[in-house]
Amino acid sequence: AVVSTQSTGADHSNLIRSLVVRAEDARLMNDMNSMKQSYLKLYDLNRDLVNGYNIRCNNHTELLACLKIVNQGIQKAGRLRVGKPKTNVITGCRNAIKQGDIEKLFKIIECGGV
C-alpha cells in the first residue's frame, strides 16, 4: 500500500507539473481557453488530492481511537492479575494482536492464558 501511494503521489506530481506548464504556455500564447481548461483540470486534481488526504486523515484518527480502546482493554485485563500472570496476559494479548488472532486475544483476556 505504501509503494502504491508513493507511485500515485509521483504520478500526481508529474501531472500537476504538466498542467501548470501547459497553462503557462497557453497564457503566453494568449490561448485563454486552453489555459482555463488546464487550470480547471489542476483545480479538480487538487480537490481530489485534498479529499484523499482528508479520508486518510480520518482513517488514521479512527485507527488511533480503536487502538487506544484495545490497549485500555489489555491494561484492564492485566490489572486483574498480579506479578507474572499480569505480564503473561499483557504479552499474550500483544502477541495475539500481532498474529491477528482475535479468538486467542479474547481467550487470554477471559482466562489469563491460552
Summarize this structure briefly:
It contains 4 helices and no strands. 9% of the residues are buried.
Question: Mind explaining what this structure looks like?
Answer:
- This protein has 114 residues and is mainly alpha-helical.
- The chain has 4 helices and no strands.
- It has helices at residues 2-28, 32-79, 84-99, 102-111.
- Helix 2 (32-79) runs antiparallel to helix 3 (84-99).
- It starts with a helix and ends with a helix.
- The mean pLDDT is 90.
Topology:
Elements: H1 2-28, H2 32-79, H3 84-99, H4 102-111
Overview features:
114 residues; mainly alpha
Count, helices = 4
**Secondary-structure element order, as H and E?**
HHHH
Q: Specify Rg, calculated over alpha carbons.
A: 26 Å
According to DSSP, the number of beta strands is 0
The assigned structural class equals: mainly alpha
Strand content: under 5%
Mean pLDDT: 90
Kindly, what is the distance between the CA atoms of the first and last residues, rounded to a whole number of angstroms? Answer: 33 Å
Question: Major β-sheet, in short?
Answer: none
pLDDT < 50 runs, ≥5 residues? none
The percent of residues in helical segments reads over 70%
